[in-house]
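Input record, target 12 of the design panel.
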């Protein structure tokens, strides 16, 4: 009798259609499954490890990463770029997921590392990652972060403003160092992705514009600095991109800019970092481009565009993040309650939520989920998976098909390896979840679960 009043004040998503149960089992979820996922006696196994047993021994919420999947993606990127470009390189974007164990996998694969600030650099140093294979970006690096990067000897700093250029030049002068840099430009290419993930448009806080000549002015200024060595240009148009023609458009714009700089200043850049952005499958019916297709398109478009302007092809780098780790990761939860609201929806409450997965609240992200202890059963109902936190918008996913679910079941949410753990928080003073790598039947904790003592460690009393 109060339905209309309730709909007027609900803060949850009421605009999403209520699908019918799809009757798929875990085996039918195709592209969202980690590389080594399999169903054994009704349970979901990853890396030869029973996720149900893992959840019950390690506790939930729990991030689980398929190490073989990560290694496969890193090798694929490394080998494809080495084959396509002379001196082509891969910088894994640590913002997607980082940690000491992850940094070591990146190094072992022969890839480089992209850090987004002093904290990620500190993790890389703790892992013993070679500093000359690190690039640091960020639109407002502090003086402390710049000094830390210079002291560490990072291979590249990405310049995002004139103030930052002068700041790096001044701090480098104090150390007697000449710091190699890239200048970040925004090409005006609007990638086909969520507006929050579009970072290459003219109206972006990142980089220097091309249409207003600020990028050209930044190049001219950098060439006058005594303690900055201008190596090349950095560009990044966005994230979770399926329409890879956007990268071809970017290649065209970059070739024009390189030609413009050569014509007006007589200067030719040695390097071009094309950023990252390749999309992944969050839904079972998604069909993202492959790494091979992406790299081949880069090769063809860059070669043709630079040849058009009679320019030598620079050393090309890319910065994949999400497409390395997202599908490798899942999050396990334990069901606490099932609440049926007749003619509205069924809420399945789990022991996690927006503190371990903020992407739904931020981007309206969608996922696939199963009951890990009923993985061979069909997804016969549709539910909304709700978190435990004190917000109506604390939702893992809306209207998601799943197996018959009851308290005590273990829910597995797929494709959570990127931007979940790294964006996690202590809201409601929730302790952050552990991260476990699984491979060849062995599970190893690479980031331990926080404790209440960790929550109190920074308190002053």
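The sequence produced for target 12 reads:
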């Amino acid at each position: 009798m109060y339905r209309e009043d309730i709909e007027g004040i609900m803060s949850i998503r009421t605009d999403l259609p209520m699908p019918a149960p799809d009757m798929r089992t875990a085996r039918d979820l195709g592209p969202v499954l980690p590389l080594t996922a399999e169903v054994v006696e009704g349970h979901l196994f990853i890396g030869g490890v029973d996720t149900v047993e893992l959840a019950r021994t390690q506790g939930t919420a729990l991030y689980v990463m398929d190490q073989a999947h990560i290694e496969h993606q890193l090798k694929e990127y490394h080998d494809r770029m080495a084959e396509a470009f002379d001196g082509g390189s891969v910088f894994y974007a640590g913002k997607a997921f980082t940690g000491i164990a992850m940094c070591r996998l990146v190094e072992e694969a022969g890839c480089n590392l992209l850090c987004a600030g002093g904290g990620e650099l500190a993790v890389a140093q703790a892992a013993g990652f070679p500093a000359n294979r690190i690039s640091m970006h960020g639109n407002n690096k502090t003086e402390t972060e710049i000094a830390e990067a210079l002291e560490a000897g990072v291979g590249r700093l990405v310049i995002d403003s004139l103030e930052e250029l002068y700041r790096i030049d001044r701090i480098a002068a104090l150390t007697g160092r000449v710091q190699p840099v890239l200048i970040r430009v925004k090409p005006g290419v609007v990638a086909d992705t969520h507006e929050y993930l579009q970072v290459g448009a003219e109206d972006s806080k990142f980089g220097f514009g091309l249409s207003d000549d600020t990028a050209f002015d930044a190049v001219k200024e950098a060439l006058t600095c005594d303690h900055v060595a201008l190596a090349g240009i950095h560009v990044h148009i966005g994230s979770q991109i399926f329409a890879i023609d956007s990268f071809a458009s970017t290649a065209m714009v970059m070739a024009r800019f390189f030609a413009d700089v050569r014509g007006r200043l007589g200067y030719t850049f040695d390097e071009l970092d094309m950023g990252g952005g390749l999309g992944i499958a969050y839904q079972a019916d998604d069909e993202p481009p492959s790494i091979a297709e992406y790299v081949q398109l880069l090769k063809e478009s860059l070669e043709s565009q630079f040849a058009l302007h009679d320019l030598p092809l620079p050393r090309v780098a890319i910065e994949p993040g999400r497409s390395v780790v997202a599908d490798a990761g899942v999050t396990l939860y334990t069901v606490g309650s099932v609440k049926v609201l007749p003619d509205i929806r069924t809420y399945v409450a789990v022991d996690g939520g927006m503190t371990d997965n903020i992407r739904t609240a931020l981007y309206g992200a969608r996922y696939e989920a199963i009951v890990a202890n009923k993985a061979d059963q069909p997804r016969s109902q549709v539910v909304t998976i709700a978190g435990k936190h004190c917000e109506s918008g604390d939702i893992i996913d809306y209207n998601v098909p799943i197996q018959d679910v009851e308290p005590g079941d273990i829910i597995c949410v797929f494709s959570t390896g990127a931007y979940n753990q790294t964006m996690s928080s202590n809201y409601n003073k929730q302790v952050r979840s552990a991260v476990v790598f699984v491979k060849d039947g062995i599970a190893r904790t690479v980031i331990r679960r926080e404790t209440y003592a960790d929550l109190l460690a920074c308190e002053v009393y």
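The two ends are 52 Å apart (CA to CA).
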